[in-house]
């Protein structure tokens, strides 16, 4: 989340250059100069939708999607996005909910050409939501299978921790931390896939914490789909080099811990 978490250079330039070129070409087709392509919310949302279509049709890889989403989220026209999703009304509705049992809630939304859908949908288009997290609570540490997702902070502040999933041993998950950012505010972001930063953990540190999220699921027929595979990092065994062996736990156990 934020440029501090944007580590594309670590993974080589070929994929990044390919996606950057694709974005520039898409902008050109729409009649925008490359340095103007992020100036309108309509163009921004259309690019988000186009990236989803490119990923679902396997024209780009999950890693290339992450690189492109990082670039797109870095240039978000925030005020226009908040207006487009009627954020104030949405925030009031989500804030009024009782989050005592589970400190997080997600609301499916439509945005521009991206229709409101559900988490059961296949990866033909992005599933877009707004999440609200109660102060002191978390979107708990968890990994995924056969999906990508990205989180953009649109209000409040979060502690953001990301991990590469190195493998599983028995009922434990081996993870290596890749990012740890305190009090990440509006305009900061993170992205995950099966191939980079698969495990994320976001903790609200203020009362007004909201995230704009998008994801695509069931991307690979030969890879088992997992919405969430929760882990208990409080009980994790440290293996050195920022690496832990953490027990895999249930959603109920995760909600009680985080």
Please give a structural write-up:
The structure is a single chain. The chain is α+β, with helices and mostly antiparallel strands. 26% of the residues lie in helices and 35% in strands. It contains six helices and twelve strands. It has a six-stranded antiparallel barrel with strand order 3-8-5-6-12-10. Strands 1-2-9-4-7 form a five-stranded antiparallel β-sheet, covered by helices on one side. Helix 1 (14-29) crosses helix 3 (62-74) and helix 2 (41-56) packs antiparallel against helix 3 (62-74). The model is unreliable at 2-38 (pLDDT under 50).
**Spatial shape:** globular
Question: Can you give the helix content as a percent range?
Answer: 25-40%
Distance between the termini: 20 Å
Query: How many DSSP E strands?
Result: 12
Strand order of the largest sheet: 3-8-5-6-12-10
SSE blueprint and pairings:
Blueprint: H1 14-29, H2 41-56, H3 62-74, H4 78-84, H5 87-95, E1 104-108, E2 127-133, E3 138-145, E4 147-155, E5 158-169, E6 172-184, E7 189-192, E8 199-204, E9 209-217, E10 226-231, E11 237-240, E12 243-249, H6 251-257
Antiparallel strand pairs: 1-2, 2-9, 3-8, 3-10, 4-7, 4-9, 5-6, 5-8, 6-12, 10-12, 11-12
Helix pairs in contact: 1-3, 2-3
């Amino acid at each position: 989340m934020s440029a501090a978490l944007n580590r594309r250079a670590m993974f080589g330039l070929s994929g990044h250059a390919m996606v950057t070129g694709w974005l520039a070409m898409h902008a050109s087709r729409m009649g925008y100069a490359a340095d103007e392509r992020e100036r309108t919310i309509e163009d921004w949302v259309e690019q988000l939708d186009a990236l989803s279509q490119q990923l679902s049709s396997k024209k780009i890889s999950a890693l290339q999607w992450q690189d492109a989403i990082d670039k797109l989220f870095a240039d978000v026209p925030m005020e226009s996005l908040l207006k487009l999703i009627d954020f104030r009304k949405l925030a009031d509705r989500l804030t009024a909910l009782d989050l005592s049992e589970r400190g997080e809630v997600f609301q499916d939304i439509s945005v521009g050409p991206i229709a409101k859908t559900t988490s059961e949908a296949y990866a033909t288009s992005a599933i877009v939501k707004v999440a609200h997290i109660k102060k002191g609570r978390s979107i708990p540490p968890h990994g995924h299978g056969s999906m990508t997702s990205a989180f953009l902070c649109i209000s409040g502040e979060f502690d953001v921790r990301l991990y590469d999933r190195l493998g599983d041993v028995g009922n434990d998950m081996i993870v290596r931390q890749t990012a740890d950012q305190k009090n990440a505010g509006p305009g900061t972001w993170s992205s995950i896939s099966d191939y980079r930063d698969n495990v994320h953990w976001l903790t609200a540190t203020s009362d007004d914490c909201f995230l704009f999220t998008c994801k695509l699921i069931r991307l690979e027929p030969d890879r088992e789909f997992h919405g969430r595979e929760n882990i208990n990092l409080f009980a994790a065994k440290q293996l050195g080099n920022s690496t832990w062996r953490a027990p895999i736990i249930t959603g109920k156990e995760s909600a009680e811990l985080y």
